[in-house]
Amino acid sequence: MTAGNAPASSSGSQAYGEAWYWDNRYAHDSSIFDWYQKYPSLAPLIRLYVPRRQPILIVGCGNSAFSEGMVDDGYDEVVNIDISTVVIEAMRMKYLNCPQLKYMVMDVRDMSAFGTRSFAAVIDKGTLDSLLCGHNSHHNAAKMLEEVWRVLKDKGVYILITYGSPAYRLTILKDQNWTIKLHVIDKLQSGNNNSSDSEMSNQEVTSPIPLDANGGGAFPETAAAAVGVNSDVHYIYVCIKDDSGKEKNEEEA
Ligand SMILES: C[S@@+](CC[C@H](N)C(=O)[O-])C[C@H]1O[C@@H](n2cnc3c(N)ncnc32)[C@H](O)[C@@H]1O
């Protein structure tokens, strides 16, 4: 995984799952940095799926300006967690006078400080990707996704922004009963350049790409058609929690 882009060779990125790596990185470079995409390019999607008046959780927030963008856009309560004490301390100081933003040191694999069904949305930009780069990647990803599922309200959304293509990410998401909508966004839309030629319109970004009923078997052809010749995209998986079956079973038991 490289900043703003695709996976790097595995040797350099294996440490992305480790707290010491991120503490070291943030201690040496405290400048604001957004992985993959900045808030303005994702705002149409966030507005579509994320309610403004309910608590929202950002997992692995880093020193991104994404949460600030949400507050400027009218979001009331954005809770940010990260495994790095260094970055959380810096962000706490930075946003001392912004009551809508909270920062907490926490491992996304153990969010027991939060009650079950606490958040209307969980937003993840690059954090599952980091865990997948590290050691025990599948075990860590599974623990993370269990916790994300637990802290979401029923019909809450987990929004995963990633370089990971459906062939791989959909298999990781299959353990929970998500209803998944897939969106794609041009990598060049990240706000890191001034090119407007390659930018997708808001409507393209907010139009999901159809997945088949079995979880995307038909995806590659459909997606290829949807993104045309340009496959240089980030993927956004909007995973909607459907807990109704489970609650019914619990009631019946
Ligand atoms: C690729 S960066 C993304 C940062 C930010 N979300 C963004 O979009 O710019 C991954 C972040 O996940 C954090 N992280 C890695 N493992 C974590 C874990 N187990 N729990 C919480 N945060 C973690 C890192 O400290 C880092 O800030």
UniProtKB/TrEMBL annotation:
Record carries keyword Methyltransferase: yes
Keywords from the UniProt entry: Methyltransferase, Transferase
Molecular functions per Gene Ontology: methyltransferase activity
Domain of life, per lineage: Eukaryota
SUPFAM superfamilies in alphabetical order: S-adenosyl-L-methionine-dependent methyltransferases
Record-level GO BP terms: alkaloid metabolic process; methylation
Domain spans labelled Methyltransferase type: 59-159
Family: Belongs to the methyltransferase superfamily.
Listed PANTHER family: METHYLTRANSFERASE TYPE 11 DOMAIN-CONTAINING PROTEIN, SAM-DEPENDENT METHYLTRANSFERASE SUPERFAMILY PROTEIN
Protein name in the entry: Methyltransferase type 11 domain-containing protein
Species of provenance: Castilleja foliolosa
